[in-house]
Specification:
Helix content is 36%, strand content 22%. By secondary structure, it is of the alpha+beta class. It binds zinc ion.
Length: 342
């Protein structure tokens, strides 16, 4: 099947679509999810499994982290993402390899929105490029922000860099998920409320309501970019990414992005990463914990496929994992300072 055959027709959408809001992307996506839960048994099962999972809350240096025991995520968490393993497998985001019942809706000219059959949160979407192009953010920030605005306040949109969380590093994709209860958004709202436009890094960035600052939260380094203008935000985001790329000698720095929109203001969280997997992933015996942080984990929902590992994980281990995979905050502040001065 090609993409054209995968895309739901207006007639197929109609029984699921809220007619009053048919022009809104959020309503179209809700119809897609409802149709797919009805017609694609694997998705139905995925959501039934999500409803049953165990979670526990940990307080890590004053910040809430939700640990999720999600056995269905083992494929993704433990996936071999080295180049030869990727080259040897069939791409699961190319239309000819999707399950027969998997369908989508078109987004812009170049993308198709699909449902993730192994959801981590409610309404877990994958936004796949129509072509098999590598995972690279250059030229795609505008799409990430546009999608964030169009999906509205109920969602957040994420990007996992090719080397830190993307299980298809060879096929460009974004993801979107229900934002309800996203720990880092709640934590940020407490420490840096939306009305607060002060910049923690340099004063002269306080133009309009744009803000750029860094926080260190529960062992994580986070660069926060916030503003109402997508154009301005995109320009600063590209400059920050370029600064990190230069400092770490990479074409694209290791990173995860999380974006959401509230009251017309966009917040982008950039997690600059030192590496993909923490020490415990490679440890043997009792010390081994199968944990591979991507954007969702960095945002405070730590996905753990193995039950014994879920039971064992405590706040101290979470702080150690975050600090091992994050670029050190002093280093990040220096890079951001240089970006601001340029
Ligand atoms: Zn592909």
């Amino acid at each position: 099947m090609n993409w054209q055959e995968r895309i739901l027709s207006a007639e197929e959408m109609k029984p699921y679509l809220d007619a009053a809001n048919a022009d809104h992307l959020a309503a179209q996506v809700a119809a897609l999810i409802a149709q797919q839960k009805h017609d694609w048994p694997q998705l139905h099962e995925g959501y039934a499994a999500l409803a049953q999972i165990d979670t526990k809350r940990l307080l890590v240096d004053g910040s809430t982290v939700i640990v999720q025991h999600n056995p269905k995520r083992v494929r993704s968490t433990a996936a071999a993402v080295d180049q030869s393993s990727i080259a040897a497998r069939q791409c699961f985001l190319c239309p000819e390899n999707l399950p027969a019942a998997e369908r989508g809706i078109a987004y812009e000219d170049e993308f198709v929105i699909l449902c993730n059959p192994y959801p981590v949160l409610d309404n877990h979407l994958v936004i796949a490029h129509r072509h098999h192009l590598e995972q690279k953010i250059e030229g795609r920030i505008e799409t990430l922000l546009g999608l964030t605005g169009e999906l509205g306040e109920a969602y957040f949109v994420l990007y996992n860099g090719a080397e830190c969380g993307a299980s298809a590093p060879d096929h460009f994709h974004l993801q979107a998920l229900s934002r309800e209860g996203l720990p880092i958004a709640a934590s940020l709202q407490e420490s840096e409320p939306l009305t607060e436009t002060a910049c923690g890094v340099c004063e002269d960035l306080q133009r309009g309501n744009f803000a750029l600052f860094t926080i260190n939260d529960a062992g994580r380094s986070v660069i926060v970019l916030r503003g109402a203008s997508r154009v301005e935000l995109a320009a600063w985001l590209y400059a920050t990414i370029e600064g990190l790329a230069k400092a770490t000698h990479k074409t694209e720095p290791l990173m995860n992005l999380v974006a959401y929109c509230e009251r017309g203001v966009y917040t982008v969280l950039l997690f600059p990463r030192a590496r993909h997997r923490p020490d415990c992933f490679f440890a043997e015996g009792e010390a081994r914990l199968v944990i591979s942080p991507g954007a969702v984990d960095m945002a405070g929902i730590l996905v753990v496929p193995e039950h014994a590992h879920y039971e064992k994980l405590d706040a101290e281990m979470v702080a150690a994992i975050f600090s091992q995979v994050s670029l050190p905050s002093a280093y990040v502040e220096e890079v951001v300072g240089e970006v601001c001065e340029a």
